[in-house]
Amino acid sequence: MENEKSYRPNVAAIILSSRYPDKCEFFVAHRSDIKNAWQFPQGGIDKGETPREALSRELLEEIGCNNIEILGEFPEWISYDFPKVSHGKTYPFDGQTQKYFLVRLREGATIDLHTYDIPEFREYEFVEYEQLFKKVTYFKRKIYRQVIDYFIEEGLI
């Protein structure tokens, strides 16, 4: 009998700049622990925490800002396996199952990547849709496109 895979419950934020809807720019950040790995902010859901509570906490921890407006929530959980190359990390899970949120930074919101002693990200950029998929790490592109295209179809982007 084959072992079932275990997935860590997780939230992920697709962040639009405060200039949206006048300008559609997506926040992506370069991980501090993995070379050339750009992604959306994400993080685990703690026991007893709702996905929305985890979203707020993770944004505050990772980008120093949870001054956001939630525009939408992807209706399903999406699971993915960690890539075979783990960059020296060991995980107790085979991958993650994620709840995606579309959020917009509120006017005047400021990002501070140095909220903690060891920052999750070393730098960030706001990029347009076309540049986004050239920038983000390869194994997240398919999921990111699926989720963003859903939000576009729903008229949220």
Describe this structure in words.
The chain contains three helices and eight strands. Helix content is 21%, strand content 31%. It has helices at 51-63, 129-135, 141-153; strands at residues 7-16, 26-31, 38-39, 42-44, 68-73, 78-81, 95-105, 121-127. The protein is globular. Strands 1, 4, 5, 6 and 7 form a five-stranded mixed sheet that branches. It has a three-stranded antiparallel sheet with strand order 3-2-8. It starts with 6 loop residues before the first strand and ends with a helix. The protein has one domain (7-153): Nucleoside Triphosphate Pyrophosphohydrolase, CATH 3.90.79.10. The mean pLDDT is 92. A hairpin with a 6-residue loop joins strand 2 and strand 3 (38-39). With 157 residues, the protein is an alpha+beta fold.
* CATH level 1 name: Alpha Beta
CATH names the topology as Nucleoside Triphosphate Pyrophosphohydrolase
Share of residues in strands: 25-35%
Query: How many separate structural domains?
Result: 1
Q: What does the radius of gyration come to?
A: 15 Å
Briefly characterize the structure:
This protein has 157 residues and is α+β, with helices and mostly antiparallel strands. 21% of the residues lie in helices and 31% in strands.
